[in-house]
């Protein structure tokens, strides 16, 4: 009896040697058990290897197991496990409950005990304690020995959590992490491995639990062979930089154990002789294995055809290049897909893109990655059904539930309901009342057919959920809630639905999906059973149960095995290691990825671990030690393949952020001198001209690109004509091929719509062409956007919310009502102060909300808070308005004055050259008048929710005409409206706001008032008349706090003043009429160009609701902005004068 080491570097044939020994032993037929122990993830592959090398005889006496499997086998044959195993999900659920109840008693972890992720940290810490044979007593011993206060508090908390956890599972269940401890004890009185010959392979290190098992096995087994991936045992010195250092430490620990327990040391076997067997056909790979980590290293100067290095532009380029190369190997080099593997350190980042590209190339692959059960539809259904109760039937929880795919309802009805719920804000009591009709549909005679349909859908959804909620609401036993969950799944026939899905997957040959969904129902039941097992009698609320269940599902993963033999294996380095790989692709070789730069120390820091080690308390390695061990992971990756290897790294991630290459890359270039770093540019000049011919789908895509170049008069390879002909006869590609040139010549530009059709679209119910002035500005901003909105009448999905336009309308209405009330009650603006304004505003807002009971502002405390904010903003605004009016001589003539509405002024009439008459309507927020020297001056004020200034360039382009149109209409109709003639005084914008003032010093009341006035100063265009301007601000000296005017020392207007003479005002009035006729004529002629305006920071596409319809893209031919270049006001005035004289230039927006 004894232990024998088998030394051998990567590729030396250690695993093969073990299998050959077993084959030889079987031929001796001495009856001894022959056991191979490997890590859990290698068991499947090693069983395949055993059958391949030994044949069916291997099934008679030999066996491949992991330590976990050994435990189950021993327990089954010799007894030892009297309770059920608590799995990770049960463990996490129990830890959550424990921390909820005992978290307040902790000293060090008190604050973070309720934080997300802490459950997992504690779970991993408990697992570490068990693997390293750490007990509560050992932790308390550390508390006594250490002088570090933080470590003392940590250990005390952990000791208490550990003790509480163990006491809660005692005599109920067994922690899975205790299985190996129980196994080592059970082996002492069990002769199951008496005389067995054992080979332990693929381990880098052993936990104390595993060491105890090896110790016990050595007492009964005939021999234990342990493979060690290292040169030999001659160098005993400690060297943390040595890639084999961790393995050498493992060897030392085993030797120490052998000495302490009188275990025989058998003569070792050294397989490190000559070129490693794996690399016998590749000098390059053999050299890399031997010299990559040696210092000084030996440079390889021979021929290189087996190692490639590729610098990709991004991850897509990286995977696409690899897919092409895999096709090349299989097609031209006689490789099988099963001979090829793709490995990386960050499999999650590459999962989706690899799946898409490999499927496109027709490459069969197996993604060796476990699937999170939390993303499975059944789990989503269960969690959302509970969440509906805990979140008061919120929109998110209901539609997460409905869209799980497991509710027996057509998607069309779910979409209809979703639109209705979003539009009307249905939640809470509107779902849960005994009769849905009383909850929301509370009208008797005017329910539409659509609402009746919605009501039926709601009741259908509500019934099973209400039944389920009645069973779990309040505080119920975990056992009863789990039963209710199971009954709920049965009621919805979820398991039958899953069976139907599996049949659909079978019809489509989706083997991975079949394996996944076959496991899910069992996993669901396991999690529920575990919850009952560990806390079945405990009473919890639905909210607590949701968190408990979430903790359970969070730790549960679905594992699948390969469903075919001939496929490319994609996975993490550790999972691919141990398989026979002839061609290897190492992807994502970037800085911080490979080698990994993990710096997470956990709740037990590196310093803590060092202090504990000084007290002979051994735990897992520190991050520093793991960083050196990561070098061994790099060594493992570089030595997996036997014939061919390609290393790739992207220069940018999926978001376009730059990435740096790993330290592996420059090292590789130095060791392998003939190695050329390839890239897209390098390959363009050095590629095989047929490299773009791979499999049908990607080749078709390349064909499209080639024909695109041909259309653009670029040279292409002659063979593309033959490829085109081939696709014309290829099933599944005939129609696509015929449509290639349609796609190449595609344009998103729309043809003009017929005049008759447009006129019919734009006419109102009375047969008139009636437009709002602001609509013409929208047409000028982008004809196509206007057509979609007002011609096609496209509408956004209505959502029950208070949007920016809603806020604007709300504030406009309150301001209008305020001014009307001031006028009706004969309140002088000079009498108004802030308090009076506040009282009136509060009354007006409260009255409006009382009248509109269904207003969203009445729907929740959150919106009531917003209402109070709106009151403050409006109060501040009317206070400022009153102050602005008090400071001047202009008086309010009218508010919300409308053109073209019933009971208001006549619409503005435009007679077009084509003979049509257009009626323009609009609404003026406020009209002020001043009678001075027998002349009536008009001031038009427009309320805005954001800052706006007068811009002559925007007016010239037709996107800021509104106030000029209004003042022109007022002047033209002044004798009818004002009963006298009038001239323009000003057009102004007032911003509704409650500004935040910034300053370093505390301001007195008067200064504060001035700052507020300055912040909310009106902007616009004033009549260039000093007397009229001063009449707008009696307190004005050199500059005004209420209007955009300033005088210089000579009493003349400063250049910063926004002013125009009466002649210029009249010029603008004439111009906007010309511009409106031009826009209306253009609109009705059928022009629906996709031509958004771009000016300064204004980009009409940025917030356009219809950009997904037009797909405007400047990279597409003829997709151009209507650019407004910044010109001087003098230039624009000159152009306006020309237009008014009938000499408008077509390309006015070009740069001079």
Automatic annotation (TrEMBL):
PANTHER family per UniProt: RECBCD ENZYME SUBUNIT RECC
NCBIfam families cross-referenced by the UniProt entry: addB_Gpos
Binding site for [4Fe-4S] cluster: 782, 1101, 1104, 1110
UniProt remark on cofactor binding: Binds 1 [4Fe-4S] cluster.
EC number per UniProt: 3.1.-.-
Protein name stated in the entry: ATP-dependent helicase/deoxyribonuclease subunit B
Residue ranges the record marks as coiled coil: none
Top-level division of the source organism's lineage: Bacteria
Lineage: Bacteria, Bacillati, Bacillota, Clostridia, Eubacteriales
Gene name of this polypeptide: addB
InterPro entries linked: ADDB_N, DNA_helicase_suAddB, DNA_helicase_UvrD-like_C, P-loop_NTPase, PDDEXK-like_dom_sf, PDDEXK_AddAB-type
Domain UvrD-like helicase C-terminal: 276-578
Family: Belongs to the helicase family. AddB/RexB type 1 subfamily.
Gene3D superfamilies per record: 3.90.320.10, 6.10.140.1030, P-loop containing nucleotide triphosphate hydrolases
Main function: The heterodimer acts as both an ATP-dependent DNA helicase and an ATP-dependent, dual-direction single-stranded exonuclease. Recognizes the chi site generating a DNA molecule suitable for the initiation of homologous recombination. The AddB subunit has 5' -> 3' nuclease activity but not helicase activity.
MF-aspect GO terms: 4 iron, 4 sulfur cluster binding; 5'-3' exonuclease activity; ATP binding; double-stranded DNA binding; helicase activity; metal ion binding
Provenance organism: Clostridium thermobutyricum DSM 4928
Enzyme kind, highest EC tier: hydrolase
Keywords: 4Fe-4S, ATP-binding, DNA damage, DNA repair, DNA-binding, Exonuclease, Helicase, Hydrolase, Iron, Iron-sulfur, Metal-binding, Nuclease, Nucleotide-binding
Note: Despite having conserved helicase domains, this subunit does not have helicase activity.
Cofactor: [4Fe-4S] cluster; Mg(2+)
Subunit structure: Heterodimer of AddA and AddB.
Swiss-Prot/TrEMBL GO biological process terms: double-strand break repair via homologous recombination
């Amino acid at each position: 009896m004894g232990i024998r080491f088998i030394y051998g570097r990567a590729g030396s044939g250690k695993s093969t040697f073990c299998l050959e020994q077993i084959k030889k032993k079987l031929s001796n037929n001495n009856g001894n058990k022959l056991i191979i122990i490997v890590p859990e993830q290698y068991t499947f592959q090693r069983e395949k290897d055993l059958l391949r090398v030994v044949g069916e005889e291997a099934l008679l006496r030999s066996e491949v197991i992991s330590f976990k499997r050994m435990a189950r086998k021993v327990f089954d044959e010799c007894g030892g496990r009297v309770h059920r195993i608590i799995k990770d999900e049960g463990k996490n659920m129990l830890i959550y409950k424990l921390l909820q109840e005992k978290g307040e008693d902790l000293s060090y972890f008190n604050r973070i005990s309720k934080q997300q992720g802490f459950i997992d940290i504690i779970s991993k810490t408990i697992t570490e304690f068990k693997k390293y044979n750490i007990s509560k007593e050992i932790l308390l011993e550390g508390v006594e020995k250490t002088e570090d206060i933080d470590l003392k508090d940590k250990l005390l908390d952990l000791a208490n959590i550990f003790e509480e956890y163990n006491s809660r599972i005692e005599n109920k269940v067994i922690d899975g992490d205790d299985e190996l401890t129980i196994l080592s004890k059970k082996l002492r009185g069990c002769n199951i491995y008496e005389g067995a010959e054992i080979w332990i392979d693929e381990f880098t290190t052993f936990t104390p639990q595993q060491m105890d098992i090896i110790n016990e096995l050595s007492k009964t087994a005939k021999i234990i062979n342990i493979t060690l991936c290292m040169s030999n045992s001659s160098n005993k010195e400690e060297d943390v930089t040595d890639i084999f250092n961790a393995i050498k430490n493992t060897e030392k620990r085993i030797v120490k154990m052998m000495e302490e327990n009188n275990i025989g040391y058998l003569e070792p076997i050294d397989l490190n002789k000559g070129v490693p067997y794996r690399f016998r056909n590749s000098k390059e790979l053999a050299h890399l294995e031997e010299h990559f980590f040696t210092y000084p290293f030996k440079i390889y100067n021979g021929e290189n055809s087996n190692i490639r290095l590729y610098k990709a532009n991004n991850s897509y380029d990286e995977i696409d290049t690899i897919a092409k190369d895999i096709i090349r190997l299989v097609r031209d080099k006689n490789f099988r897909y099963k001979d090829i593997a793709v490995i990386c350190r960050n499999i999650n980042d590459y999962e989706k893109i690899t799946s898409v590209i490999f499927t496109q190339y027709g490459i069969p692959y197996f993604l060796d990655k476990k699937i999170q059960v939390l993303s499975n539809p059944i789990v989503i259904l269960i969690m959302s059904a509970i969440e509906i109760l805990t979140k008061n039937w919120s929109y998110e929880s209901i539609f997460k539930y409905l869209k799980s795919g497991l509710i027996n309802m057509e998607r069309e009805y779910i979409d209809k309901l979703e639109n209705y719920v979003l539009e009307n804000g249905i939640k809470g009591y509107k779902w849960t009342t005994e009769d849905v009709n009383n909850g929301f549909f509370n009208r008797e005679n005017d329910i539409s057919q659509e609402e009746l349909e919605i009501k039926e859908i709601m009741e259908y959804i509500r019934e099973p959920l209400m039944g389920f909620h009645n069973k779990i609401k309040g505080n119920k036993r975990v056992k009863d809630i789990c039963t209710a969950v199971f009954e709920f799944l049965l009621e919805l026939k979820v398991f039958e639905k899953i069976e139907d899905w599996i049949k659909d997957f079978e019809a489509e040959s989706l083997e991975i999906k079949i394996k996944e969904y076959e496991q899910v129902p069992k996993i669901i039941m396991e999690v529920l059973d575990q919850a009952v097992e560990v806390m079945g009698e405990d009473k919890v609320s639905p909210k607590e149960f949701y968190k408990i269940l979430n903790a359970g599902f969070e730790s549960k993963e679905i594992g699948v095995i390969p469903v075919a033999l001939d496929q490319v294996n994609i996975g993490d380095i550790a999972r691919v290691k141990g398989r026979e790989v002839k061609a290897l692709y190492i992807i994502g070789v970037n800085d911080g990825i490979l080698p990994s730069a993990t710096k997470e120390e956990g709740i037990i820091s590196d310093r803590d671990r060092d202090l504990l080690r000084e007290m002979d308390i051994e735990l897992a390695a520190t991050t520093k030690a793991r960083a050196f061990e990561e070098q061994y992971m790099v060594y493992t990756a570089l030595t997996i393949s036997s014939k061919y290897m390609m290393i790739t790294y992207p220069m940018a991630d999926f978001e376009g952020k730059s990435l740096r290459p790993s330290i592996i890359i420059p090292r590789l270039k130095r060791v392998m001198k003939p190695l050329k770093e390839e890239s897209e540019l390098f390959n363009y000049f050095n590629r095989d001209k047929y490299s773009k011919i791979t499999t049908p789908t990607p080749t078709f895509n390349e064909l499209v690109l080639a024909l695109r170049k041909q259309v653009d008069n670029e040279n292409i390879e002659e063979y593309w004509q033959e490829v085109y002909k081939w696709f014309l006869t290829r099933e599944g590609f005939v129609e696509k091929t015929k449509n290639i040139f349609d796609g190449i010549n595609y344009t998103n530009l729309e043809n003009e719509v017929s005049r008759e059709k447009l006129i019919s679209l734009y006419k109102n119910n009375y047969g008139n062409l009636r437009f709002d002035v602001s609509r013409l500005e929208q047409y000028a901003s982008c004809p196509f956007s206007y057509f979609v909105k007002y011609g096609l009448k496209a509408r956004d999905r209505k959502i029950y919310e208070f949007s920016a336009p809603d806020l604007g309308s709300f504030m406009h209405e309150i301001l209008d009502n305020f001014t009307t009330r001031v006028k009706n009650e004969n309140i002088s603006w000079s009498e108004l102060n802030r308090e009076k304004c506040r009282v009136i505003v509060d009354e007006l807002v409260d009255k409006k909300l009382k009248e509109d009971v269904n207003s969203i502002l009445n729907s929740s405390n959150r919106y009531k808070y917003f209402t109070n904010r709106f009151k403050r903003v409006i109060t501040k605004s009317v206070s400022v308005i009153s102050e602005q009016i008090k400071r001047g001589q202009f008086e309010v003539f009218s508010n919300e004055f409308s053109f073209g509405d019933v009971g208001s002024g006549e619409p503005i009439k435009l007679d077009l050259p084509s003979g049509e008459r257009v009626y323009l309507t609009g609404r003026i927020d406020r009209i002020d008048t001043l009678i001075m020297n027998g002349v009536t001056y008009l001031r038009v004020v427009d309320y805005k929710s954001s800052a706006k200034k007068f811009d002559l360039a925007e007016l010239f382009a037709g996107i800021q005409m509104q106030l000029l149109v209004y003042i022109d209409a007022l002047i033209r109709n002044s004798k009818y409206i004002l009963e006298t003639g009038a001239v323009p005084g000003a057009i102004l914008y007032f911003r509704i706001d409650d500004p935040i003032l910034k300053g370093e010093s505390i301001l007195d009341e008067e200064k504060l008032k001035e700052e507020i006035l300055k912040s909310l100063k009106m902007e616009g265009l004033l009549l260039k008349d000093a007397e009229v301007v001063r009449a707008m601000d009696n307190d004005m000296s050199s500059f005004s706090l209420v209007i955009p005017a300033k005088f210089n020392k000579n009493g003349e207007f400063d250049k910063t003043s926004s002013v125009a003479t009466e002649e210029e005002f009249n010029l603008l009035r004439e111009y906007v009429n010309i511009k409106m006729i031009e826009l209306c004529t253009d609109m009705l002629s059928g022009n629906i160009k996709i031509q958004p305006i771009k000016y300064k920071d204004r980009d009409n596409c940025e917030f356009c609701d219809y950009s997904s319809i037009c797909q405007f893209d400047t990279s597409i031919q003829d997709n151009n902005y209507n650019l407004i270049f910044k010109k001087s006001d003098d230039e624009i005035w000159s152009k306006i004068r020309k237009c008014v004289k009938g000499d408008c230039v077509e390309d006015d927006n070009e740069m001079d």
